[in-house]
Amino acid sequence: MNYKNYPRRHYLQYPTPIEHLPQLSNYLGCGVEIFVKRDDLLPGAAGGNKTRKLEFLVADALKEGADTLITCGSMQSNHCRLTASWAVKEGLDCHLILKSGSESSYKEDNTSGNYFLNKLLGAKIGDIVHANSDLDSLMIDKADLLKQEGKRPYIIPIGGSNSIGTIGYVACAEETIAQLRAMKLDINHIVIPSGSAGTQAGIIAGMTHINDNIQVHGINVSRKKIEQENLVLNLANETAGKLGYSDKIPKDFVTCYDEYVGEGYAIPTKEMIETVKLFARLEGLLLDPVYSGKAAAGMLDLIKQGKFKKGSKILFFHTGGVPALYSYMNCWK
């Protein structure tokens, strides 16, 4: 694929495993088989899917001569934690702009989890900004201040989800198909958390180019269905164009579900809480409460609704984020 023409840091030395979840499959009793792509095992401090994006984003930053990375996210952002970790490995400074959580009856412990790890990694964190703040503008302002100090900052968007970062999941699509072929495993559906859109967009762009017909289902963690589908489609086509793919990705290639968001981003739902417990106790697999927990809850509901035909094989993408569990411990008390 043409992504091999782009600079890459190769943090990932081996494909992440694809594992069968037999206990969960049997427990559901719906005649489907569930497998998981373990992107929670990607390298970086405590792992997670953003490492795939950062392979290309950090390489681009270094090509531009940057000495500082700037990015943004929520208090429990996995992307911020992984950006901070790879900045350490590359000898770069890292500035994080973090926003407070959404208003709800539940308040997580923001002193633990990813926030604690960001501090431990030495990331520079200023004042926590309001949830509705314009993070892009704040990152530009921070970059301007750093330039005045003689620094060479590089801005990474929220979630690492631009056309450069999304290339990481185009590469992942190729990796996944190669694994499935080697395993002689016919997957009918992929289920994936859909947030800043880069992961789902990259998988769709990659699968389209490979001409594989596995259906990709995104489970939203924040936005409404139409808004998320448009975001994914536009980013998938922008990334495909960057890689020189000539055909536009059709709108009907993108499917997202917004029924599992609950009150809002990072706000727990009863279904997420039960699903995280179920995966832990049946498969010894830890899901995070913000992305993979809600996405898995959505997948189980779709299975129970009969969305997937009996005999289907489903590949669930575990995108990581387990450190956030420590900030949400009250959910399981």
Automatic annotation (TrEMBL):
First and last residue of the signal peptide: none
Cofactor or coenzyme needed: pyridoxal 5'-phosphate
Pfam families attached to this UniProt entry: PALP
Occurrences of domain Tryptophan synthase beta chain-like PALP (ranges): 13-320
EC number, UniProt record: 4.4.1.15
SUPFAM superfamilies found in the cross-reference section: Tryptophan synthase beta subunit-like PLP-dependent enzymes (SSF53686)
Keywords: Lyase, Pyridoxal phosphate
Domain of life: Bacteria
Enzyme's top EC category: lyase
InterPro entries: ACCD_DCysDesulf (IPR027278), D-Cys_desShydrase (IPR005966), TrpB-like_PALP (IPR001926), TrpB-like_PALP_sf (IPR036052)
GO molecular function, one term: D-cysteine desulfhydrase activity
Family: Belongs to the ACC deaminase/D-cysteine desulfhydrase family.
Protein name as catalogued: D-cysteine desulfhydrase
